[in-house]
Amino acid sequence: MAPVRGQLYRRATEMASLFAAYLVTARVGLSFDALGGIATTVWPPTGVALASLVMGGVRLWPAVAAAALVANLMAGVPLWTAALIAAGNTLEAVAAAVALKRAGFDRRLERIGDVLLLVAVAGLGSTAISAGIGLGAGRLVGLPEARHAARFFGVWWVGDALGDLLIAPLILVFAERRRLSVRPLRWLEIAALGVATVVAGFTVFRHQMAWDMVRELGRGTYLLAPVLIWAAIRFEQRGVTTTLLVLCAIGVSGALSRTSVIEGATLHDRLLFIQGYAAVTAASMLILAAALAERRAAIRARDEFISIASHELKTPLTALKLRLGSALRVTRRLLEGDGGAGQVDRLARAVSAADATTDRLDALVDDLLDVSRLTAGRLALRIEPVDASALMRDLTTRLRDQAAEVGSTIDLLLPEAIVGMWDRGRIEQVLTNLLSNAIKYGMGKPIRVGAEATGDSVRLWVEDGGLGIAPADQQRIFRAFERLASAQRVGGLGLGLYIGQQIAEAHGGTLMVDSRPGRGARFTLGLPRALRQPARPQLKGP
Fold this sequence. Notes:
Layout: H1 2-30, H2 45-56, H3 61-74, H4 79-102, H5 112-141, H6 149-175, H7 184-205, H8 211-217, H9 225-257, H10 267-335, H11 341-376, E1 383-387, H12 388-405, E2 410-413, E3 419-423, H13 424-441, E4 447-454, E5 457-464, H14 496-506, E6 510-515, E7 521-528
Parallel strand pairs: 2-4
Antiparallel strand pairs: 1-3, 4-5, 5-7, 6-7
Helix pairs in contact: 1-2, 1-3, 2-4, 2-6, 3-4, 4-5, 5-6, 5-10, 6-9, 6-10, 7-9, 9-10, 10-11, 12-13, 13-14
């Protein structure tokens, strides 16, 4: 009962925190010249809701719905209209969170693809749901502002988009635990960036801080670009999101005080311009920071790969040298007539061990060659009829002794025959890697191997009961040179799953994992029975 009560308490705490944060930021948003009291160019709750559902799961949606309903009721909106708007706000957040999860979104925003997903799915896509429902509610209740549909929709859409592009990334990147720098110069640079941001913001948005000199140079927000680029290069996504938030706050204050560089007859026009600028700049700077993060990750992966490859190649080479040296000494004794059956037996064991070591070296070199072929798009497939059941039985027979050495058994759940048109060697390569991984990480527990066919598709799977894989690592392990922390003790180049996924995609199929920490993992290779149009393999960076 205690664990259950603990889970309920944590869930209630999460719900209450989200409700409070949404309600407070909603009150702030509605205070900025809201059209009809409900459509505003400043709407931070969208970002709060999205970040919370991405991190905590869509199960938190009741808190979003309740907070949105209360916020609209407090703004004087009729109950049924407030309920309709709250439904739109909730659906917007849920749709974005679900779509991002299915697309493999990484909340660290360290890949350009993740930023583009955030912009397209959340910033541009899901926000249209809430804006559309809000427009409908406004027209139904008879708001005069809602008669101008394009204007009303645009205000709502821009306000929600900015929440997804400014507030959500800020929460997501700061929610990731990272070690703080202890270098004094780093903190001095942070302080310098903060001062530069405030000075630049007040100069551009408030006509203060040597405005006469700036006016001679020209009017516009381009003067903020160096500060934003500095933040992106030196402090990545955390620096970008924080700097943008500070500049946006100064810009909004400038619009309210009528001292902004942005010209506009009304407060609404000035706010809309500033928020539009902030949304576009946020997307641009997040992409720049992600590109820099990808470059740094690629450099780290290269350095790590060189280190790993050197170690992995040197280990078998050292063993091979020792075994060949032993074989050479035995051979000399035999040639000198000093030895008998015992020496011959020692020679045979040394040569056999050297042969096994050579096979390991050959496998490592083959992996490196496959990466080279994938990079150049030259992974050729030799398509022929293949019986997947027979292939998996053969692999199991060959690896059963290896599994027994670590205490694992292999159970087969295979139909009599499943025939498809594939490259036998490449499919065998993928399945061998999956079964070898199950033996390495299975902790001596039973391993299950199975296959099933449904119509024109086939699924081949390998399941172990070992360490399992954390959700945060389940996308990463399919990238080149990526390994789990537990892989340090078993070695390898971190290429097996990456190559396997590329082979699957070249066949028009998929390679996926379903796992929970401590409960093992199931890897499933999905293939069409007949190869239609193979995808051209592309190298995916870390």
